[in-house]
Amino acid sequence: MNYSRQHELTNIAKIVLEHQNFTILCHRNPDGDTLGAAFGLCFALRQLGRRANVLCSDPIPPRYEAIYQDYEPQQMEEDYVIAVDIADTQLLGEKLASYADKIELCLDHHVSNTGYAHISFVDPASAAVCEFMCFFVEALGASMTQKIADALYTGLATDTGCFKFANVTPQTHRVAAALLEAGAHHWQINRRMFDIKSRGRLMVERYALDNLEFYCEGRIALLYLPWELVQRSGADDGELDGISGLTRQAEGVLCGITIRQQPSGALRVSTRSSEPFDCSRVCQALGGGGHPRAAGCTLSGPLEQAKAKILAQAEEELKGCAR
Amino acid sequence: MNYSRQHELTNIAKIVLEHQNFTILCHRNPDGDTLGAAFGLCFALRQLGRRANVLCSDPIPPRYEAIYQDYEPQQMEEDYVIAVDIADTQLLGEKLASYADKIELCLDHHVSNTGYAHISFVDPASAAVCEFMCFFVEALGASMTQKIADALYTGLATDTGCFKFANVTPQTHRVAAALLEAGAHHWQINRRMFDIKSRGRLMVERYALDNLEFYCEGRIALLYLPWELVQRSGADDGELDGISGLTRQAEGVLCGITIRQQPSGALRVSTRSSEPFDCSRVCQALGGGGHPRAAGCTLSGPLEQAKAKILAQAEEELKGCAR
Q1: Straight-line distance from the first to the last Cα atom of chain A, in angstroms, rounded to the nearest whole number
Q2: Given CA atoms B129, B255, A186, B67 in this order, what sign does their dihedral have?
Q3: What are B's interface residues with A at a Cβ cutoff of 8 A?
Q4: What distance in Å separates residue A177's CA from the closest CA in chain B?
Q5: What b/e string do you get for B162-174 counting C-beta neighbours within 10 Å, with b at 16 or more?
Q6: Residues of chain B positioned with their CB less than 8 A from the CB of A171
Q7: CA A163, A168, A174, A178 torsion-angle sign
Q8: What does DSSP assign to residue B31?
């Protein structure tokens, strides 16, 4: 993080420290980064004698238990509202929607942040909010306890696929080193986040391996997950997102397509690609959008028609990719 | 790495630089660490005007291609022989066995190193040989090129499960940061090492998910891989080792057992456990050995008898584990 951005964080820390009571908001369908950053910040503020609570519209999945196990909400009058890892107030979810116009400070790393807060610190160069939160904790003058390090490590690891993705920079590893120095239970956290799978997730994985279809000489893989299976498995959204990534695992696959039937009957399409295949173009052509490596759209049924549509677009995109 | 160990590396570098021609040996069934460290060192020595070759008893699996793609063996008279990541001369393999008593320098991180070389530098505090090789390249006075960084990053990532395992330390992350600064193609390497799976590996995974058996209220998982399947899949040893890890993925499993039928009919057992289950005790009782989290043994058939034996031992060990 360069000097001017660090300086910004220092100034924001001064403003924050003028207040006593904090409400910290996570995004709906919470992931490791929004939770890790929110609880890490909460613990730092409490250490400094402030009152602070973390709120989320949705229940926190049990796999993040280690982050919040010792957390108890505190009685307080609301004062200063901070949103973490929330690009848009739409992502507050139903229960927190009323906070949309009361957010004093937003700490985020999404380039698409809509600037809804009074003060915004958005750092797309950070792989996770937890990455720069490490500097913010320091700027606040809090010490990096093991509990804070565990929370921040969780977000850093989950947003980078355990340091596997293209968003990792030298700074990401330097922050990880600092969190390990502070005693983060890194491998125990990683085991919980990346190795242990619920029976439901394993059920869907097994179905995926049995039902993956290959097209265009194995360069496109397609998986259809019927609603009945998803429901029976009990796998949550985060677990199902992981399944989308499996489609491009097979050697030679450039584009993996997952079609998830919704309870309404609509078909939610997630695509994942390898260079040089641009799946955002495929999804845009069908009314969706996203990034070159991960994009999505929603199609109406029947399934065979939807499959034909997405496969036709993907084949078109494939033509532009050299063998 | 503390000062005295760094000083040792500096002294070893001085001795190495007195020589002109180098033969660098990898262990049999080569993995990312032995290859990354050997080629990284080879490129560094060539950069310093020396002649250097890398030798291995077994063919190098194609997934490591990025490490050695520009490598061409050089004509030279043999001079100074260096072994990397080789704990015991047994691991040289058949083709390199004749080097066993000619090894001048051994660079390793296995605590079990037998001290067979004239000079040994063994650093069990390093998660990978590639971790301290980063310091050795510096001690030699070579610059950390992108090519060397790619080689060393490969070993660092593969020996730590992409920074996921308990062997990762703050130093591991600091070295990773330095390799990324030097331009290592980190996410491309990670994709090749951790995401892309051969059709053979996927075939075995699919079989595993379909055939995993659970015992003791889901706390023990057992998988049997018949030789016919392994042969048909064409999956190599490294790929099959990954399968053993899958057995303890299911939530609640403390011990995962994989039984691989060998062409001879013998049954090779790999066990993987989660704390507090000690699978080395299970395997020791059956004539094998290993670490608390990963151990192995070999049993004779028939399968049902072997299964009963290993399950009885595992149940015994389970009694000592609190629920």
Answers
A1: 39
A2: positive
A3: 161-166, 168-171, 173-174, 176-178, 180-181, 186-187, 190-191, 194-199, 202, 205-206, 209-210, 245, 248-251, 274
A4: 4
A5: bbbbebbbbbbbb
A6: 177
A7: negative
A8: -
- The whole-angstrom separation of Cα B82 and Cα B100 is 11
Q: How far is A23 from chain B (nearest CA, A)?
A: 33
Note the pLDDT of residue B207: 92
**Edge-to-edge order in the sheet of strand B213-215:** B213-215, B220-225, B255-261, B267-273, B294-299, B289-290
Q: Which residue of A has its CA nearest to B166?
A: A187
Residue ranges in chain A modelled with pLDDT below 70: 322-323
Please count the other Cβ atoms lying within 10 Å of the Cβ belonging to residue A38.
33
Task: Identify the three-state secondary structure at position A236.
Answer: coil
Query: For residue A186, which residues of chain B lie inside 8 Å, CB to CB?
Result: 168
- Longest alpha-carbon distance in chain B: 63
Residues of B in contact with A168 (CB under 8 A): 180, 186-187
Query: B174 and A174: CB-CB below 8 Å?
Result: yes
Name A264's Cβ contacts closer than 8 Å, sequence gap at least 6: none
What does the alpha-carbon distance between residue B287 and residue B305 come to, in Å, rounded to a whole number?
16
pTM over 0.80: yes
How far is C-alpha B290 from the chain's CA centre?
14
CB contact under 8 A, A170 and B178: yes
User: Which DSSP string do the residues of A156-172 spell out, in sequence order?
Assistant: HHHHTTTTTSTT--HHH
Q: In order along chain B (323 residues), what is the average pLDDT of each group of 10 residues?
A: 93 98 96 97 98 96 88 92 96 96 96 94 96 98 98 96 94 98 96 88 90 94 94 83 85 93 93 90 90 88 94 94 68
Q: Look at A166 and B180 and tell me if their CB atoms are within 8 Å.
A: no
Packed helices A129-140 and A32-47: angle between N→C axes, nearest 10 degrees: 10
**How far does the CA of residue B103 sit from the closest CA of chain A (Å)?**
35
> Closest residue of A to B154, CA-based?
A164
Q: Which residues of B touch A172 (CB under 8 A)?
A: 177
Task: Find the CB nearest A187 among B165, B178, B206.
Answer: B165
pLDDT in tens, A136-192: 999 999 999 999 999 999 999 999 999 999 899 999 999 999 999 999 999 999 999
DSSP, res A301: S
For B179-205, give the DSSP string: HHHTT--HHHHHIIIII-B-HHHHHHH
List residues in chain A touching B: CB distance below 8 A: 161-166, 168-174, 176-178, 180-181, 186-187, 190-191, 194-199, 202, 205-206, 209-210, 245, 248-251, 274
Q: Which of B151, B146, B145, B115 is nearest to B40 (CA)?
A: B151
First to last CA, chain B: 39
Tell me what ipTM this predicted complex has: 0.89
Residues in chain A with CB shorter than 8 Å from the CB of B181 are 170
Alpha helix (H) ranges present in chain B? 3-16, 32-47, 65-68, 129-140, 146-159, 170-181, 186-190, 199-211, 227-233, 237-246, 279-284, 303-319
DSSP β-ladder status, A220-225 and A255-261:
parallel
